[in-house]
Design a protein that fits this description.
This protein is of the alpha/beta class. It has 13 helices and ten strands. It has two domains: about 150 residues, D-Maltodextrin-Binding Protein, domain 2; about 90 residues, Osmoprotection protein (prox), domain 2 (D-Maltodextrin-Binding Protein, domain 2, 3-Layer(aba) Sandwich). The chain has a five-stranded mixed beta sheet. A three-stranded antiparallel beta sheet has the order 3-10-4, with helices on both faces. The chain is globular. The two termini are about 30 Å apart. About 40% of the residues are buried. Bound molecules: 1,1-dimethyl-prolinium. 1,1-dimethyl-prolinium binds next to loops.
Length: about 270
Amino acid sequence: GLAQAAPVRIGSKQFTESVILGELARVSASDAGIEAVHRRELGGTRILWRALQQGEIDAYPEYTGTLTQELLAGMPADADIASLRKRLEPMGIGITDSLGFDNTYAIGMRDDEAARLGITRISDLRDHPALRLGLSNEFLDRGDGWPGLRRSYGLPQTRVSGMDHALSYRAVASGAVDAIDLYSTDAEIPYYHLRTLIDDRHYFPRYEAVYLYRLALEQSSPAFVTVLRHLAGRIDARAMRRMNAQVKLHGASESAVAADFLGVRTDDS
Ligand code: PBE
């Protein structure tokens, strides 16, 4: 008989939302009768980007601002998806339209602490040089991360430590650090009563969620590309926040949350 096509390989980064988006792609694919595997939490942004370019994975969830600020040189920060698509095509990489939400970086503090110090904007941090910052490891040295933020706002803080993003919420909640980088769709922001500081210099671009995929799939697995494209526009920020909360605050598995969102019954989750 005919050889079975190799399963499509989906990757994700090392944080909950990325794993959920990977599962949404995998579960949608298997619901459409396409064999797909999800290699979860392969690493940070650069690991996933390289794995896609080298053909070790076929697709993964990414964010537009991450493409313009960290992965592609010489793009305007708020380049739209059409210009990203044009730029990625010669590299053999395809991009879906926005899944329907923006997950931007932001700077956050405990609301009570921010109120006590009168801090509402990132620029207010200039007047509080002793504050301790707990920044996620990737944010510490990204093109759109701490070095640029410090320069853009003239921030004076020197007590800056790197930490796993998943642990930084407890660190700020317990007072071990005073401010952290947030991902705006994180469920912990309201849960821990954090205040998102206004980005008054508009340092952060938009980070629309998308899937990137190898363009070769349009020949080898066009049905999978259709599945990815069908997820575009279907997830708004509220839905994404709710899915993140189900996993991070209520202990549900990413697979169960993805299947539930899609209205699919699975026995492989
Ligand atoms: N994020 C928030 C994005 C950038 C902003 C961490 C979800 C990422 O590149 O993974």
